[in-house]
Amino acid sequence: MANERFLEAAIRVADWCVTNQVTRRDSGDRGRFVRWLRVADGASRLSTNWTTGTTLIGLLAAHERTNDEKYLESARLAAGYLKSLQVLDTRTPHAFGVFREETPQTGQAHPRDALTAAWALLALHQVEPDQELLDRALIFADWFTKFALRTGYPAWTMYCDDRPWYEIHGSFHGGSPAFFHDLARVTGDASWIERASVPICDYYIDRFLKEDGGLEIVYLPEEDRFATDEEHWTYPVIWQHMHKYNDDFAITALVGTYLDTKDGKYLEAARRLAGRLMREQNDDGSYGRPMVASASGVVAMELVDLHRVTGDDAWLASATRAGEHLLTLQETGDDPACTGAIYGMDADGDINAHRTTLVLRATSYALTALLKLDGAVTGPFFTA
Asked: Residue 129, Cβ neighbours under 10 Å: how many?
């Protein structure tokens, strides 16, 4: 059965994450995962705030499905690292609450990435209630609405010192309201929806989402225009291409905001975006040409949500095809440093031609997606 294949593949992914997590007590990196691994020479880097967060959430889903304590313990270790990244120095009000991008010494963060770290702590709180985890998520949410969202749409990059913020707008913030959807549900405070979800979704629909469901990716507010392909030295073309298919949970956010507000325009926007992705799905189940590995996981999760909300089996069929494609991207050799992980875009952006690099972006998304497609996981893991 396909479900059994998805579950077996998901367990291999989860085991790879656990095997390749830093666990030494005397390491400042304790709790981090391998962010990418080049198979040919073993070169690697460790996870950032957001990739640590996405992996934490996937491990919580693996724990729910298998009841294996090693996945929950791994998630706890990851949460410990995320805690070390959060700025709780009251002398820097403009940074108080944010999660630094990579290490406790990193001087900046991308608010969208930091949000994923807070989202992960909130997810762990829902699995095993811990007031500190909820408090940290709330402190971040307060920072985000006061500072990151101060111009009406979240900033691209913030700095913990006195440097001016990078105020370019990216479509990847379309998924940010999904965190506030969860926060409102957990706390019972619906004000987060009006404070954050509604303005971000409205801006996203008006600015980034095209009538045909396509996406603009980088908006330059001071010039009132979108970045062009000729500016690829600043906003790499392949990076923009990736975000046209990996929408960073914008569909999830739109569905969540629809459920929170009962305003049909958000569901219509979600259908429009998802419909374009489904129309452009490749014969092998992947999305994008060149194929975007991370999109198969993200979109699969989102289409499962749309299926649950609308009852339309077409969404689930597309998600299942994406899951089948993920199976073809999984490393299945005997090396524990590699087996179970998912190949992602290499430097050329063409996974079909160059299976060179195992990438946590694609791997962590695949973990949760495969478990959702297995059908037994119902927890609060990347869902509206």
From this structure: 10
Nearest to 277 by CA among 243, 328, 237: 243
pLDDT by residue for the chain (384 residues), tens digit each? 457 899 999 999 999 999 999 999 999 999 999 999 999 899 999 999 999 999 999 999 999 999 999 999 999 999 999 999 999 999 999 999 999 999 999 999 999 999 999 999 999 999 999 999 999 999 999 999 999 999 999 999 999 999 999 999 999 999 999 999 999 999 999 999 999 999 999 999 999 999 999 999 999 999 999 988 777 667 778 888 899 999 999 999 999 999 999 999 999 999 999 999 999 999 999 999 889 999 999 999 999 999 999 999 999 999 999 999 999 999 999 999 999 999 998 655 555 556 889 999 999 999 999 999 999 999 999 999
- How far apart are the C-alpha atoms of 17 and 305, rounded to whole Å? 25
CA separation for the pair 327, 345 (Å, rounded):
16
Top-level class of domain 2-374: mainly alpha
Q: For residues 251 and 29, what is the distance between their CA atoms, to the nearest angstrom?
A: 33
Q: Which two tokens stand for residue 276?
A: 């374009």
Sequence-separated (6 or more) residues with CB below 8 Å from residue 156: 110, 111, 165, 166, 167, 168, 169, 170
Domain boundaries, the chain: 2-374
**Strand ranges (DSSP E) for 138-244?**
158-159, 169-170, 218-220, 225-226
For the record, the structure tokens of 293 come out as 């590995």
Percentages helix, strand, coil for the chain, rounded to the nearest 5? 55, 10, 35
DSSP 152: S
Q: pTM for the complete prediction?
A: 0.96
Q: Assess contact for 266 and 201: CB atoms under 8 A.
A: yes
